[in-house]
Write a structure and sequence with these properties.
Order of helices and strands: HEHHEEH
Oligomer: single chain
Helix content: 55-70%
Structural class: alpha+beta
Radius of gyration: 12 Å
Shape: globular
Amino acid sequence: MEKLFDGEYRLMEVLWESAPVNSTQLVTLCREQLGWTKSTTYTVLRRLADRGVLKNENATVTSLVTKQEVQRSRLTEM
């Protein structure tokens, strides 16, 4: 698995807590928890979807990887 950048990992933490979640609700959660704008959230969402880390179908966002998988890959990168 590719390494996630810090911002991508932070969005995934919000997603893992709430998934599956409506994309509009995810924007609200990211604004409240991360201080992100709507455009920032959607940019990171699109990037992660393009890389196969999450799925955004019919405005419902779900993770395609577990937190443990990502944490394992982060440890091997160090």
